[in-house]
Amino acid sequence: MLAVLLANSGGAWDNAKKKIEAGLLGGKGSDAHMAGIIGDTVGDPFKDTAGPALNPLIKVMNLVGVLVAGLIVTKIPIVVRVAVIVLMLVLLTGAILFSKRSTLLDIALDEDPVSGNASTTRGGKIRVSRPEV
Questions:
Q1: CB–CB of 33/7 below 8 Å?
Q2: In 3-state terms, what secondary structure has residue 111?
Q3: 31-73 and 78-99 helices cross at what angle (nearest 10)?
Q4: Is 0.85 topped by the overall pTM?
Q5: β-sheet bridge partners, residue 118
Q6: Nearest-CA neighbor of 36 among 52, 57, 53, 15?
Q7: In a structure prediction context, what are the per-residue pLDDT tens digits for the chain, which is 133 residues long?
Q8: Separation between Cα atoms, residue 7 and residue 48, nearest integer Å
Q9: How far is CA 16 from its chain centroid?
């Protein structure tokens, strides 16, 4: 998701600068042009790093989709097709749950996500707190 956001926002900043240079919002030399140059400076690394990273992702997703679709659509008994679909749904659910878990450090310290301070609720451990910034 972040790679898609970065690639799209980098392209948007680049296109905005080109539009301003074409005469929109005052053209070259205006405050909008200065802002467009800054935006393009930020957007170029976004496009250059996130864009190429999306290509292998898209190819792998397409390949997996084609292989699974071919497996499901062929003349396999309906029981096997349903089992494959259920297995894929279980794997998808497991991946989502795995991505939503808390980090081990947060669990070990019983850390408060808002303040960042750890409490002593588990066995009277030493209270650990982060310095205020």
A1: no
A2: strand
A3: 150
A4: no
A5: 111
A6: 15
A7: 788 888 888 888 999 999 999 988 888 889 999 999 998 898 888 888 877 878 888 888 889 888 878 877 777 788 888 898 899 999 999 988 888 776 554 555 555 555 555 554 444 455 555 556 5
A8: 8
A9: 24
